[in-house]
Amino acid sequence: MATGVETTGASEVLSTLTREGKRRWICPKVSDGRFLRARRWVAWGLIAVFTLVPYVRLNDRPLVLLDVAARRFTLFGTTFLPTDTVLLALLMVSIFVLVFLMSALFGRVWCGWACPQTVYMEFVYRPIERLLGLGRPGSKGTPLARGVKFVVYLLVSMYLAHTFLAYFVGVERLAQWVRQSPAQHPAPFFVMLATTAAMMFDFGYFREQTCIVACPYGRFQSVMLDRDSTIVAYDRTRGEPRGKKRAATGDVALPVLGEDEARIGDCIDCRLCVTTCPTGIDIRNGLQMECVNCAQCIDACDAVMAKIGRDPGLIRYASQRELAGESRRRVRPRVAIYATLLAVLGSLFLFALATKSLATVIIVRGRGAPFTVMPDGTVMNRVNVKVTNRTDRPVSYTVEVVGVPGASARHEEGMDLGPEEARVIPTSIVAPFDAFSRGKASAVIRVSDTEGRFTKDVKYTLMGPGTMVEHSKSQKEDDDEEQ
Ligand code: SF4
Ligand code: SF4
Predict the structure, then answer these.
(1) Which ligand is nearest to the CA of 264?
(2) Is residue 277 lining ligand 1, measured as CB closer than 6 Å?
């Protein structure tokens, strides 16, 4: 894979660097065409989705709520708790494999069509700039236009930052905060300011550099793509040798040089594919890491081909194998492996989700003495029963001891838990003195809900007087031996 290097000059420089090592500002020309129109629809659809999702509720819960502070993640009406590590891990790995599969099949379709960086840069921030007469090569605009641009960018960035924050705190809480003084909630206010500043920096200054140098996805491309992956590519066989030729229609003034037009390729070297490129590369140099597959160069070139009376598609979506004149292989080892892996992971995730327990129970021995012999001769063990209600309804639980005749469990606090609430309940387990053998009694602590939908048995060893007796005996024997 080439690296977006200009090779025409005496020295090689990146597309966004001048030969002096300074930033070269990319001001891509708009090239109207079928891909731009399609991408515009997709972009506005995605912007609408991104804006509306925090307001949508499913099963009386937010569709998406990533409550990092409470470590609860609600996705499509299902809430994942910290105890759902396996589910979350399966979901994350499945998403990664899906990205690998999509990239192997369709190249960087995500980058060019759906990535928020591209969507907001090309369909929100750049259009604002153009509307104000800015963003053209060599045009700095008036101070007033630059000032208005700054204010509009700031407002849009603040709005986006609030929308972004809504995914983490919910729209209700966000609406409440917006009506209050920032001093009442400094941390979220700071997060909003930091997010706004990051967006201003990204969309106002860093721009295509995010794709070129910062995004890890772009770096992975060379390992995810193969010769059968779909990329935006220049058809060198058809286009070269490039040169000027007569326009087919009388209304286009293309220069006619003295060459034999039949011998030169379809590329007229107008460089429109370069001037429209948001990362400033020349796609005619081959597959490059900087290419985000936005298809702007396809639209630009198709318009040129129409003007000179040639077929469209000199630059087009194609695989490297197709460009080499070979037939393309849709199914190939990496695609089969990714698809199989995705099917397995997806099935495991769905199975784990369907069989997800309604509650989790953890039992920990209480602090202090391992047991207490009560005045009535019974033996008491203190345990902490941690119950997490993993349903979205209030649930009442009970604790009982089985396997030890005459044993019972008592807890002072009630065990009525709210939706998704976790609570530690100090519990006393009282067993008859004669239930212990050699200081121990094997019991089962059973936690159930009162509706009969959930029961969890946890094996637990009760400690009793035999321990002390044994300990005293062995200690005495040790002492006797020492004497
Ligand atoms: S837009 Fe098409 S014709 Fe013009 S330079 Fe690019 S590839 Fe050649
Ligand atoms: S080379 Fe074409 S597809 Fe790639 S980033 Fe530039 S304009 Fe978009």
Answers:
(1) 1
(2) no
297 lines ligand 2 (CB under 6 A): yes
Is 268 close to ligand 1, i.e. is its CB under 6 Å away?
yes
Helix (H) or strand (E) holding 317: strand 315-318
pLDDT in tens, 254-283: 544 454 555 678 999 999 999 999 999 999
Nearest residue (CA) to ligand 2, atom 7:
277
Residue 31 CB less than 6 A away from ligand 2 = no
Query: How many residues does this entry show for the chain?
Result: 483
Asked whether residue 430 carries a pLDDT value surpassing 50, the answer given is: yes
pLDDT higher than threshold 50 for residue 86: yes
Q: How confident is the model at residue 472 (pLDDT cuts 50, 70, 90)?
A: very low
Q: Does ligand 2 lie within 6 Å of residue 292's CB atom? A: yes
Helix axes 143-169, 186-201, angle to 10 degrees: 130
Q: Which CATH number fits domain 359-482: 2.60.260.20, 2.60.40.10, 2.60.120.10, 3.50.50.60?
A: 2.60.40.10
Q: Is the pLDDT of residue 12 over 60?
A: no
Q: Rounded CA gap, 241 and 247, in Å?
A: 17
Reading the block at residue 441, the tokens are 């009694």
**Is 16's C-beta closer than 6 angstroms to any atom of ligand 2?**
no
Per-residue pLDDT band for 432 (boundaries 50, 70, 90) equals: very high
Ligand 1 geometric centre to CA of 18 (Å): 22
Answer yes or no: are the C-beta atoms of 235 and 316 closer than 8 Å. yes
Domain ranges for the chain, please list them.
5-224, 231-284+297-323, 359-482
Ligand nearest 286 Cα, by number?
A: 2
19 pLDDT higher than 70:
yes
Ligand (nearest to CA of 303): 1
207: phi > 0 → left, psi -120 to 50 → alpha, else beta; which?
left
- DSSP class of residue 122 equals I
Residues 6 or more apart in contact with residue 91 via CB below 8 angstroms:
75, 80, 349
